[in-house]
Design a protein that fits this description.
Blueprint: E1 2-3, H1 12-24, H2 29-47, E2 53-57, H3 61-75, E3 80-84, H4 91-100, E4 105-106, E5 115-119, H5 131-143, E6 146-150, E7 172-176, H6 189-192, E8 194-198, E9 208-210, E10 216-217, E11 230-234, H7 239-251, E12 256-260, E13 272-274, E14 287-292, H8 300-311, E15 316-318, H9 328-334, E16 338-340, H10 344-351, H11 358-369, E17 372-375, E18 380-383, E19 389-392, H12 404-417, H13 422-440, H14 446-458, E20 461-462
């Protein structure tokens, strides 16, 4: 069993393609099902302690995996029962039921067990469960001490994370072969519990991965404040938003942070305040990342500030109000390194109504704007114009507080200013933001979140000797 961190994420079509490639190379559906069933059985055996197990099977290949998992558990000496929603369909599923060979209870009449294994329906489901199936599954899952889903919780859409009907909440989901978008996208991700990938010796390829814990380098021994990365933040009408972004950039590793448009010294004293009227700090060649948008406003003054930022040749991070003042075409024409950090409302303002899954929408928007897109929310998708993407599914619900997006902007800008691949910089900022929230627990405000970035960063720094 492999944790999600860094693993490939495949939609239903890509997963089917990987299975078909294996069959074309000499495998069979039955052989693939045997591997999946054995892997599920072994995983449940490790997770279930001494408890009895009930495996509920559907009529398709997911149900076939369940029959073989039950057979494996029986061979390992477990007390195991099987219930089914109907007769198996397809030669492989029929053969799997034959391999089980034991009694099969009707799902509607099945009595609960301490451990439930849901092998009803998996990848590719497009409809809600029948009312009787859903009711029986809910009863069994609710009565179980440990509820385990095979591949996906039954009733979940694999590609976009939608709930097709009522879906129980599981303690563990065993992803077959690879993670699916629904393991990371809400609302489905909240029903999966801890997701573990069961590798099935398939050749997998794809450009999307689950966001992994970061491993960031400490400053070199010959570093100075500018080589570590200089971040400049344009102050808007709501000065506090820019302050939060600047403070976050300082705590996320930037060597020098300037707040542009603010001249009155305030704490922290390490934050440099520069006027936008007396000189042209946006042209400073030492600036590694320029942040515009937090608290900017949407009036003529805000538009003028945004135009000045777009006219610079600095790497840009664009957030908040600025996302309402742009078009994708304007961004693509500008070129250069751009990172956009919209929530759902800002995404709609810039790109229109999102179509398809959040992953699909983020990839399309990134390509359209020629920019790195951080489509944030209860789940976050980080996408590049090339189609490469990171999916971050685990975030604290306490991040739903004013200013948390400004902190995220500063965290990403700090990593962007340090150099390297902009997509990876955005991913690092997202990870640090989530890690800081996790450290704080409950009831924090954005000011606390900015401060917590420093210990979150310290926890993932590797020392360098060069």
């Amino acid at each position: 069993m492999t944790p999600l961190d860094g693993t490939i994420v495949l939609d239903a079509a890509a997963m089917r393609a990987a299975e078909q490639a294996a069959i074309a190379a000499g495998d069979s559906v039955e052989a693939l099902m045997q591997r999946a069933g054995r892997a599920v059985g072994d995983a449940v055996h490790r997770l279930a302690g001494a408890h009895a197990v009930l495996v509920v099977c559907g009529p398709g290949n997911n149900g076939g995996d369940g029959y073989l998992a039950a057979a494996r558990l029986r061979a390992l000496g477990r007390t195991v029962r099987v219930a089914a929603a109907g007769e198996p369909r397809g030669a492989a599923a029929i053969a799997a039921r034959g391999a089980w060979g034991g009694a099969v209870e009707p799902l509607a009449a099945a009595k609960p067990a301490p451990v439930l294994v849901d092998s009803l329906y998996g990848t590719g489901l497009s409809r809600a469960l029948a009312a009787a199936e859903a009711a029986a599954l809910a009863k069994l899952a609710g009565a179980a001490t440990l509820a385990i889903a095979v591949d996906l919780p039954s009733g979940v859409a694999s590609d976009d994370g939608a709930l097709l009907g009522a879906v129980p909440r599981y303690h563990v989901t065993l992803a077959l072969g690879a993670a699916k978008p629904a393991h990371l996208l809400q609302p489905a991700a909240a029903h999966c519990g801890a997701v573990r990938v069961l590798r099935l010796d398939l050749a997998l390829s794809g450009d999307a991965r689950a966001l992994a814990a970061q491993n960031l380098a400490a400053p070199r021994v010959d570093s100075h404040k500018f080589s570590r990365g200089m971040v400049a933040v344009v102050k808007g009408r709501m000065a506090g938003a820019g302050e939060l972004a600047a403070r976050a950039a300082m705590r996320a590793g930037a060597g020098y942070v300037a707040l542009l448009g603010a001249t009155i010294p305030q704490s922290p004293h390490a934050l440099v305040r520069r006027s936008l009227e007396r000189d042209d700090p946006l042209a400073d060649p030492r600036v590694g990342a320029l942040v515009v948008g937090p608290g900017l406003g949407r009036d003529d003054h805000a538009r003028a500030l945004l135009e000045r930022a777009l006219a610079s040749d600095r790497a840009l991070l664009i957030d908040g109000d600025a996302l309402h003042l742009l078009t994708p075409e304007r961004l693509r024409a500008r070129g250069g390194t751009i990172v956009l950090t919209p929530h759902a409302g800002e995404f709609a303002a810039l790109f229109g109504t999102a179509r398809g899954s959040k992953l699909t929408a983020a990839r399309a928007a990134a390509e359209r704007a020629g920019a790195i897109l951080v489509y944030k929310g209860p789940d976050t998708v980080i996408a590049a114009p090339s189609g490469r993407a990171w999916l971050a599914g685990e975030a604290s619900s306490w991040l739903s507080t004013a200013g948390s997006g400004d902190v995220l902007a500063g965290a990403i800008a700090a990593r962007l200013a340090a150099g390297g691949d902009p997509l990876d910089a955005a991913a690092a900022g997202v990870w640090l933001h989530t890690a800081a929230a996790r450290r704080l627990g409950a009831g924090f405000v954005a000011d606390d979140l900015a401060e917590a970035l420093a210990p979150a960063l310290a926890a993932v720094i590797r020392e360098t000797r060069a």
